[in-house]
Design a protein that fits this description.
5-stranded mixed sheet; about 40% helix; alpha/beta; Aspartate Aminotransferase, domain 1; 16 helices
Length: about 400
Amino acid sequence: MKKLAGQDRTITAKWRPATQAIRGGTARSHYGETSEAIFLTSGYAYDCAADAAARFAGEQQGMTYSRLQNPTVEMLEERIALMEGAEACRAMASGMAAMTAALLCQLSQGDHLVAGRAAFGSCRWLTDTLLPRFGIEATIVDARDDAAWARAIRPNTKVFFFETPANPTMDIVDLAAVCGLARDRGITSIVDNAFATPVLQRPMDYGADIVAYSATKMMDGQGRVLAGAVCGRAKFINETLLAFTRNTGPTLSAFNAWVVLKGLETLDLRIRRQSENALAVARFLATRVPRLLYPGHESHPQHALAMRQMAAGGTILSLFVDGGRPQAHALLDALELVDISNNIGDSRSLMTHPASTTHAGLSAEVRAEMGVEEGMLRLNVGLEDPADVIEDLDRALKAARL
């Protein structure tokens, strides 16, 4: 097979995001396939021993091993980078592989980072448990408070790390303010953008240095495979992150990369329609539950900021019941259409009780600090007719005595 025919980035960078999501990064073999090929290979052959040596020395272009390069994975990386407005991207085996690599590749013993209090449970485990084992200190702040970030900075602060919207509290971080502060102080900002995706929000447009994803979520969008991605400047990706991933191996498989490539083709349509559905569901729930958190609903305390940064409110919302875990579980058990599942970003509506699932590994004290209450439920609104989702929720709420 001849070398794959790749694209001219000066052309693809001019395309709008919806076009990039379908055509960005595509490289074709001499067969001229329209759908991206899956290269299920662990290694690559060389014409001669000198070529192998030259590739490993970085003196010759070409692939050496699929832990480092794979044609299908490279297509996905280029596509995500284009959509994000980033110079480069590295795809990972999962979202948590992406978060771990983005942090560990640049932090060393004696360094300090500042992280947002509200985060996915495993991300808080990284900042609270894993990094301190290696002598890396973390200060946890209320990410909604711009001044808290400034107060937390130390001479050895190297990274700001946060989610917006945050999982599952829907905290919104002022991207321009926090990323601008980081840049002014020589600190690297890492934004987990999984809830919004580049369709609704591009943190780099507001000054973020690195954007990380669980591509398992909206990018795949149909609950099929695990994947992650880290986007940033080419220098960071190729000189800092690449060495870490090459030697530690959080590698995305070619098949999973291909599945996410297919998912990206419909991302723009799905995320916008699911956001419309989520807003309809939020308007219903606002009249039925004690408290609701959805960035796209006017009741959200940071609604104005969210709508300045995001094109829509997203697919996820959180609701609260007064009866704690028993009433929350009763509501879940009464659902008929909506699935009980800890995944998000799926085309199906899914609901979970974070305190007993996604954040169960954290102490009660940390959950309280984050705002993850026993009466909180997180809902991923899918592509079903929102009237059917509302009817299911209405019946379940009545069954749970709400």
